[in-house]
Amino acid sequence: MEADFSEMRNELQSRDALWRRIQLECQQLHTELLKIKEYKNMQEIQIKHQSSCVQITEQLENKNAELLLLAQSQEHQQEELNKIRNHLYREEQAHRSEQERMKTEISDLTEELHQKEITIATIMEKASLLERQLKMELEIKDKLLAKQQLLDFRYKVIKSENTHLKEMV
């Protein structure tokens, strides 16, 4: 997209340069036209020949026709230049709005990531707490199991003694 902008700028500069050359030529032709008019006036005063007047008039008309063509070409070039400028402006605006949209999207995603990181940290904290609680409960259950096994053993011993005592009696 940057290459398109650069190409458009180059074309715009090229057309600007052409426009300036056309204006300079117009000024030169206008100056030449004024000189021709002066020359024509001097010739009319000095020389009374009709043929010279006709020739100068034809040259003047030719120069006028050239000026008209140059003016039309200049208008066409100006229109083209304006179209290119408008197109370039629209492209730059579209590029800027796309950049803004991407910045907003990145900001939103960054915020979402931050929230997820907070959620993960909270879950990890809770998991750690639950793990400690489970370990404590396992320790308590292990102690209770050991007590129960001891009590079972004592019960069997007492039962065995009772059985032995009953047999003795």
From TrEMBL:
Which source organism?
Cepphus grylle (Black guillemot)
Location within or outside the cell:
Cytoplasm
Keywords tagged on the record: Coiled coil, Cytoplasm
Q: Coiled-coil intervals in this record?
A: 57-126
Tell me the gene name. Deup1
Q: Name one GO cellular component term.
A: deuterosome
PANTHER family named among the record's database cross-references:
DEUTEROSOME ASSEMBLY PROTEIN 1, SARCOMA ANTIGEN NY-SAR-24/CYTOSKELETAL PROTEIN SOJO
GO terms under biological process: centriole replication; de novo centriole assembly involved in multi-ciliated epithelial cell differentiation
Entry protein name: DEUP1 protein
